[in-house]
Amino acid sequence: MPMRRTIGISFACLVTSACATSKTPETSKTPEENPTPYADEAAKVPDPCCRLVPIVGRSQSGKAAWYDFVGKKTASGEILDSITATAAHRSLPLASYAKVTDLDNSRSVIVKINDRGPYTPGRIIDLSPCAADVLDMKRAGVATVVIEPLVYEPAPVTAAVQNSGATLAQ
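The chain above was modelled as a monomer; its predicted structure follows.
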C-alpha cells in the first residue's frame, strides 16, 4: 500500500508541475507612467495588422455588473487589475474580445474576456473596475448592456502606385 501512495503522490506532483507557468505577474503602471489609463487600455487592439469587427447576429443583451477582486487570479491566469478593461462571461472564449454598450447612456468599451462568470442569476457579464468606469456604471452597480463578440479581420491591403516617376503610398 505505501508504494501505491508514493506513486500517486508522485503523479499528482508531476501533473501539478505541468500546469505551472514561468510568467511573473505584470505590475500595474503608476499614474505618472500612464496618466489616462482608461482611454489607452479600454480600446487597445493588440495586433496592428488586424482589426476587431463584430460578429453579425451574435449579440446578447441583459444585465451587467462590475466586480472588484483586484489582485486575484482570473480563470485565464491573469491577475485582475484596476487599469485594464476586462470581463467575465460564461461562454465567450477566454482571451477573446467583446464590445459592451450601456443602453442607458450609449457608452461602450472593448473588453478582453479573461474570467468566467457571472454566478449571480439574471446577469450576463461581470466587468472589471476599469470597464465599469468607462461605462459610468459604478455608482448604479448594475446596467442593461448589449454585448457584441468581436473577431479579428485582416486590415485592408494598401497598395503603392507609381505614376509619372512619383510613388504614391497609402
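Strands lie at 50-54, 60-66, 86-88, 97-102, 108-115, 123-127, 142-154, 160-163, 166-169.
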